[in-house]
Each structure stands twice: as structure tokens, then as C-alpha cells.
Amino acid sequence: MALDNLIFAQCILYFLAFVFGFIAVVPLSENTEDFGGKCLLFTRGMWQNENITVSKQRFIVEEWGPESSCSFITFVGIASLILSAVQAWRLLFFLCKGHDE
After folding, report:
1. CA atoms 71, 73, 78, 82: torsion sign
2. Closest Cα partner for 25 from 86, 84, 73?
3. Where exactly are the transmembrane stretches of this chain (predicted)?
4. What residues contact 45, with CB distance under 8 A and at least 6 apart?
5. What DSSP designation does 53 have?
6. What is the pLDDT of residues 31-85, one digit of tens each?
């Protein structure tokens, strides 16, 4: 019985890892597409006021972040999605069909 509770807890944690990985990968890949392949991570820039009343500001990019940082984060996110989905499915299978003790 205690082993079933442990497997169920692991299954829930792997499912949460899948959900949080999905939450991280989707916006990062969308931002990469929106900025024309330029990486928003580690970008350097400054805020510039368009008029004296400071009613409108815009961000001027001085240096874009390296593309490799976005590629690495996307790869790690997709790998965690795949691995957590496989582990959650495997543990759910063990929980439903039984397991060897």
C-alpha cells in the first residue's frame, strides 16, 4: 500500500514536470519566432522616453542575447517534456496493472 502511494506521488510529480515544461517551452519558442530568431534571453538595452512627459517609453536593444542560449533552453524543455511524459505514463501503467515487489 505504501509503495502504491509512492508511485502515485511520483506520477503526479512527473505530470507536473510535464505541465511546467510545457509552460516554459511554448512562450520561449513563440518569442523566438516573434523576434525573427533573435534571442530575448540575456538581451542588453535601455529604456528611452519618447517625450518629456514620460507618457510613452520604449526599449532600445543594444545587444541581443546569444542564439545558443535560447536553443539550449528550448532543447532542455523539450527533453524534459518527453522524459516526464514517458515516466508518468510508465508509472501510471505500473499503478493500474500492478508491479513486482
Report:
1. positive
2. 73
3. 7-28, 72-95
4. 59, 60, 61, 62, 63
5. T
6. 888 888 888 889 999 988 877 666 778 888 899 999 888 889 999 999 999 999 9
The alpha carbons of the chain give a radius of gyration, in whole angstroms, of 21
C-alpha cell read off for 91? 508509472
- Spell out the alpha helix ranges (H) of the chain: 2-34, 67-97
Considering only CA atoms, which of 83, 75, 85 is closest in space to residue 28?
75
- Alpha-carbon distances, residue 28 vs 45, 72, 99 (angstroms): 19, 11, 39
Instruction: Report how far apart the first and last C-alpha atoms of the chain are (Å, whole number).
Output: 11
